[in-house]
Structure formats: structure tokens, C-alpha cells
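Our preliminary data section would be incomplete without showing what the modeling component actually yields. Below, a chain of 261 amino acids is followed by its predicted structure, encoded as C-alpha cells that our downstream tools consume directly.
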Amino acid sequence: MAGGRLADEIVLITGAAGGIGAAVAAVAGREGAAVAILDIDPRGNDVAEALADGGILAAFVQADVTDEDEVNAAVASVTSRLGAPTVLVNSAGRNSYADPVEMTSDEWDSLMAVDLKSAWLTTRATLTAMIESRHGSIVNVASIHAEQTSVGYFPYAAAKAGLVGLTRSTALEVASYGIRVNSVSPGWIRTGLVDEWLARHPDPQLEQVVVDAHPVGRIGTPEEVAEVVCFLASSSASFVTAADWRIDGGLTARYAIPPTT
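Predicted structure:
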């Protein structure tokens, strides 16, 4: 493999058919890693093929990250094709537009399965090999909603707060094996999920309100998140574990959102 921060690493990324996951795949490949994409969306194969066309060793495995058997089979497939994953990036996630009274138990379970349980399933499936080799890094993609949320994000905020907690507790469990576990908490990032939320909102000026709330004056990009993820995954961050890094353009540093006219 080519040189780079992730040279000789085998990076498994969930939810990499698009958005932040696909951007992580591209940056990881640029940094010398072999890249495995795990997604229920068949478009993940297009991402893998694009990487391969660029000379990057890449593979796609279609699987439901909420299904224990499919996750285990997917990790086994990646291991047989590329080798045991040494880096895991849990990027799979979905939005929720629910009311705390009207939401059903099935709807709650479905959201938690994607945004929280799946990270545990993939972590469990990859940790055995990492522990045996005493080498590995896990990065979970959480959200600023884990700490600072607003109306309309129930129970997305709860799931992301759980993911940060999962990150910290897992980090403590595996630190003695030389394995690091961190999370990133992006803010407003130009992904399909954000575009979906903006499209659902009745106020056509909402996007400008969001932009104006950011000290840097813009929404972030998936590539900017990917750069931080791959740094945390690499040995350049060898003394960083159990941490949650905000990637929000300074949004959560504000005391309040400026009034709009």
C-alpha cells in the first residue's frame, strides 16, 4: 500500500455509501489504507469501485448493520478479502422526526438499532482480532446533539449521547490492549440527512439562519469531518482515547443564536 498516516491499516467503515462515510473512505484510501465499505445501500459498491479505480485496495460488503448475524458475516468477509480490520469507523446513522408521546416502541427500537446498537455490534465483531494483535482504533460518528440539542430531534439526541457514552466506556475496557476508541461530534455538515431536514422545514430562510449562526459563516463538508476521523484513527493521535471531538465551526461555543430579522 501507499505511504500515509494509515499505511498498512485495514479500515472498515459503516454507512459509507454516501455522506461522511464515503468521505472517510476516500481520505483513508488516500492515506494508504485498504478500505472496506459496509452498507445496506448497494451504492456502496460504486464507492468501492471508484476507490479501486484510483489504485486503492477496496471492497464492498452489503449488510444490515442492525442485524447481528449479518454484521458478523460481513466482518468475516472483509477479513477473508483484505485481512482483519485494524480500524473501525461507525458512520451509519439515520434521522428521526418523532414526538416523545406519539412515537411507538417499534419506531424507538428501529432508530436506536441504527444509531446506537449497530456501533456495538460492529465493535464487538472487530475487537477480537484487534485484541489478539494488540493494535486497533475505533472512531464513532456521533453528533453535537449528544450534548446540545433542540426541539424536533427526539430521540436522535438520546441515541447520539449513548454513542458518546459507548465510546468512553469501550475505550476504558480496551486501553490495556493498545486499542483506542474515540468519537467525533459533527454539527451542520452538508450531507443527505441535513438536506432532508432542511427540505422538510416550512421556513425557506432556515438555511441562511443556520449559516449565520456559525462563527465561521458556513456549513461544514463531509471531507472536513473525514480528515478529523482519519487523524484520530491514525498513530498521529496515539495519546488520544475516550475523547469526543466537536466539528461544528464554533457553533456550540455561542451563548445563543443571534436574532434574525
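The chain has a mean pLDDT of 94. The first helix runs from residue 19 to 30. Preliminary results of this kind motivate Aim 1 of the renewal.
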